[in-house]
Amino acid sequence: MTRRSGPGPRPSKGRPEGSTTDQRLLDSRGDSDWVHTDPWRVLKIQAEFVEGFNDLAELGPAIAVFGSARIPPENPSYQLGVKIGGALADAGFTVITGGGPGAMEAANKGATEAGGESVGLGIELPWEARLNDYVTFGLNFRYFFVRKMMFVKYSQGYVVLPGGIGTLDEMFEAMTLSQTLKITTFPIVLMGVEHWSGLIDWMKGSMLSDARIRQSDLDMLTLTDDVDEAVALMVAARDRHA
Ligand SMILES: C/C(=C\CNc1ncnc2c1ncn2[C@@H]1O[C@H](COP(=O)(O)O)[C@@H](O)[C@H]1O)CO
Hints:
Layout: E1 2-5, H1 21-26, H2 33-56, E2 62-66, H3 76-90, E3 94-97, H4 103-113, E4 118-123, E5 137-141, H5 144-154, E6 158-160, H6 165-179, E7 188-191, H7 193-208, H8 215-218, E8 221-224, H9 227-241
Parallel strand pairs: 2-3, 2-6, 3-4, 4-5, 6-7, 7-8
Antiparallel strand pairs: 1-5
Protein name: Cytokinin riboside 5'-monophosphate phosphoribohydrolase
Region (Disordered): 1-31
Pfam family, one: Lysine_decarbox
């Protein structure tokens, strides 16, 4: 794992082009030499957990903001990301994102411009990626699953802006952990009513009506376009914690 404070390019990992550490762990096809290195990889994984725990332990109350990596600054979701990042910072929260472009950059921008703490938990990808310019403290992870645990452990709630597969993964992971009581009092706010309504309707019409989920599962989600409502929910959860 690499670490930096302030903007700048990610350090080079000296890895084969087009391959990531996660991929070399998970993709077991091909040369069996990789298999024999798995026990040693555990030490790398362990090191990422140790460094993450060490570097994030003093963060204070934080909210993670997720959303599409692919939207430009002109997109309305980007503007919403800036607003929610700023409002969360104004309310005293550290804002944590994946440190990438799009909605992540927007939330980091809002937090930084409001004078708040703006954290980016980046991930090694097959192409050269860098933490966005609005991250004031950043960590770069090799392993997705280690990084995902850091979001859950060091934030008190999630704000989920319109996004794609990565965003859905983050949202459903939080729902799964809440449903199974691995995390408690963890607000999940979906911002962007138009974007999310279709998914919620499908969950009601299919998952709920087929008894694959309960109404209480859907109640974990708050759907809104209202930044003040989103922040108020996070503040209420923080107050309940205190
Ligand atoms: C697509 C491009 C770069 C991607 N870079 C990312 N950096 C950090 N985190 C990322 C990146 N891509 C996805 N994520 C995580 O998933 C969520 C967004 O995924 P989606 O599929 O776009 O919804 C996001 O919250 C991140 O945590 C090239 O510009």
